[in-house]
Amino acid sequence: MKVIIPGGTGQVGTILARAFHRDGNEVVVLSRKPVTAPWRVVAWDAHTLGHWASEFDGADVIINWPGAA
Predict the structure, then answer these.
(1) Which of 48, 50, 44 is nearest to 4 (CA)?
(2) Cα(55)–Cα(32) distance, integer angstroms
(3) Helical H segments across 1-69, by residue range
(4) pTM of the model
(5) How many angstroms separate the CA atoms of 61 and 27, rounded?
């Protein structure tokens, strides 16, 4: 299962990403400030369309968890 978590680098998003990843799912976190993680973290700004938009292709689950702008 492919899980996309926009804004998922905070505490709750990381817990969710870790749980989905541990269960063998493909996890993609979209972040304004990408960090190194066991899952993919892709840069985005949430305002302009960019290469990050293609991450939604084939997604089974999207958990919209954006933080402060």
Answers:
(1) 44
(2) 15
(3) 11-22
(4) 0.88
(5) 10
Residue 45 tokens, joined? 């700004």
The band of 67, judged by pLDDT with boundaries at 50, 70 and 90, is: low
Element (H, E) at 62: strand 61-62
At 46 the pLDDT is 75
For 12, the token pair is 């709750």
**Rounded Cα distance, 15 and 27, in Å:** 12
d(CA 28, CA 7): 10
The 3-state DSSP class for residue 30 equals strand
Q: What burial class does residue 27 get, using C-beta atoms within 10 Å of its C-beta: 0-12 exposed, 13-18 middle, 19+ buried?
A: buried
Task: Identify the residue whose tokens are 């840069």.
Answer: 43
CA 38 to CA 3: how far, in whole Å?
Answer: 14
- Asked if the model's pLDDT at residue 2 lies above 60, the reply is yes
